[in-house]
């Protein structure tokens, strides 16, 4: 598990810090061939680097943020590499601005995907004993997920909840029961949070009991979710 943790953190560090550093090097090389004023372009990668260092400390154990930051940093890097040569009088790379933006986003997302797969594939029970926030997607409910942190569990209807009606968080000490259940697809599930769309979804599910509420959470990883919750409850 320690070896996997190191590999994951290396990829995350490349995403949050390596992309801005690489962009800074490219911008500096381009600026060196132009007027002194061109060095002002280094402000952007430096700002990204500062933001990356700060966010890395906050997000290193939260995979739900890796895609967003990787896509943003990758896209910004691809766009700047193609547009910044304008500052030194080189015009033709600007034609590649859109492909550069797309390529940067794709490359960034590929890094985030690599970190996610390195962490989760294959899934091992020992992950429950790490500080990583583990994400379990809800079947039939687009964008919804269950997030199991070190000491709490969150059910949310959107990756970035816009209001308190789109998520609910419980301390693990308030979870009083978890049971595996099988849905036929005929059930009409109701959620205390605002869910934009929920489709009938036969298959495994978890009944989660917390603070007098019963949640029916359709997920293909029902057994794993229960195992993680039980393990983290015992150490919370």
Tell me about this structure.
The protein is α+β, with helices and mostly antiparallel strands and 236 residues long. Helix content is 44%, strand content 17%. The chain has helices at 2-31, 43-59, 66-83, 97-120, 222-235, and strands at 134-137, 145-148, 152-156, 167-171, 175-183, 203-210, 213-218. It has a four-stranded antiparallel beta sheet, with helices on one face. Helix 1 packs parallel to helix 3 (66-83). The longest helix is centred in the N-terminal third of the chain and has 30 residues, at 2-31. The two termini are 20 Å apart. The model has no long low-confidence stretch (mean pLDDT 90).
> Helical amount among residues, as a percent range?
40-55%
Low-pLDDT stretches are: none
How is the main sheet built? Answer: 4 strands, antiparallel
The averaged pLDDT comes out at 90
Q: In DSSP terms, counting alpha (H) and pi (I) runs of 4 or more, how many helices?
A: 5
State Rg: 22 Å
Measured by DSSP, the beta-strand proportion falls in 15-25%
| Shape verdict | elongated
By DSSP, the count of extended strands is 7
Q: Class by helix and strand content?
A: alpha+beta
How far the N terminus sits from the C terminus, by CA atoms, comes to 20 Å
Strand order of the largest sheet: 1-2-3-4
Listing every helix as H and every strand as E from the N terminus to the C terminus, the arrangement reads HHHHEEEEEEEH
